[in-house]
């Protein structure tokens, strides 16, 4: 990740929240079955990230749901005059972490499916994706560069898995 100036603001993104930035910020979040979608405009340096808990839901509680979070983020860019064709989109999370009766809950998988469907319907291509599996993820998203540092969590320890872009 780009060297971080000690004065750069840092935000912890909780479930059901969106962060939209027009200046550099490092946004940290931890995901299990939840999904985070990041969007970055290299032309303007504007960025957004969501931490959505469930696949679909009412617009009145938009940030809790993958479908409405994505639409709301796109509206934020549109309101700022940023064309969606300029956005770099990345998707993370969606692990199936809890077993019930010997089978895995499909919430994580369904979150990923809905994200893919909505992004495709909105005409957006995903440039990076790290989804599924059974382990949580910790993300550090640099809103000034669009970089994402991903750590896969295991038993209280975390290891750096990937960094985008390289």
What does this structure look like?
There is one protein chain. The protein is built from two helices and twelve strands. The chain is globular and about 40 Å long. It has 166 residues and is an alpha+beta fold. The mean pLDDT is 88. The longest helix has 15 residues. The protein has a domain of 114 residues: 60s Ribosomal Protein L30, Chain: A (2-Layer Sandwich), CATH 3.30.1330.200.
Order of helices and strands: EEEEEHEEEHEEEE
CATH topology of the domain at 14-22 and 32-136: the name is 60s Ribosomal Protein L30, Chain: A
**Largest sheet data:** 5 strands, mixed
Radius of gyration: 15 Å
Through-space gap between termini = 8 Å
Uncertain residue ranges:
none
Key features of this structure:
alpha+beta; 39% strand; 5-stranded mixed beta sheet; globular; 166 residues; 60s Ribosomal Protein L30, Chain: A
Structure at a glance:
The protein is of the alpha+beta class and about 170 residues long. The chain has helices at about 65-80, 105-120, and strands at about 10, 15-20, 25-30, 35-40, 45-50, 85-95, 100, 105, 125-130, 135-140, 150-155, 155-165. A five-stranded mixed sheet has the order 1-3-10-11-12, with no helix packed on it. Strands 2-5-4-6-9 form a five-stranded mixed sheet, with helices on one face. Strands 7-8 form a two-stranded antiparallel sheet.
């Amino acid at each position: 990740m780009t060297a971080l100036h000690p004065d750069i603001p840092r935000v912890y993104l909780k479930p059901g929240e969106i962060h939209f930035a027009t200046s550099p910020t490092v946004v940290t979040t931890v995901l299990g079955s939840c999904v985070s979608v990041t969007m970055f405009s290299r032309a303007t340096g504007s960025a957004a990230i969501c931490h959505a808990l469930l696949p679909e839901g009412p617009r009145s509680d938009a940030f809790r749901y993958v479908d409405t979070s994505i639409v709301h983020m796109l509206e934020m860019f549109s309101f700022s005059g940023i064309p969606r064709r300029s956005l770099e989109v990345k998707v993370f999370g969606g692990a199936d972490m809890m077993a019930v009766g010997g089978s895995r809950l499909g919430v994580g998988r369904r979150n990923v499916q809905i994200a893919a469907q909505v992004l495709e319907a909105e005409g957006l291509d995903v440039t990076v994706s790290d989804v599924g599996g059974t382990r949580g993820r910790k993300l550090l998203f640099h809103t000034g560069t669009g970089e994402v540092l991903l750590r896969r969590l295991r038993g209280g320890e975390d290891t750096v898995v990937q960094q985008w872009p390289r």
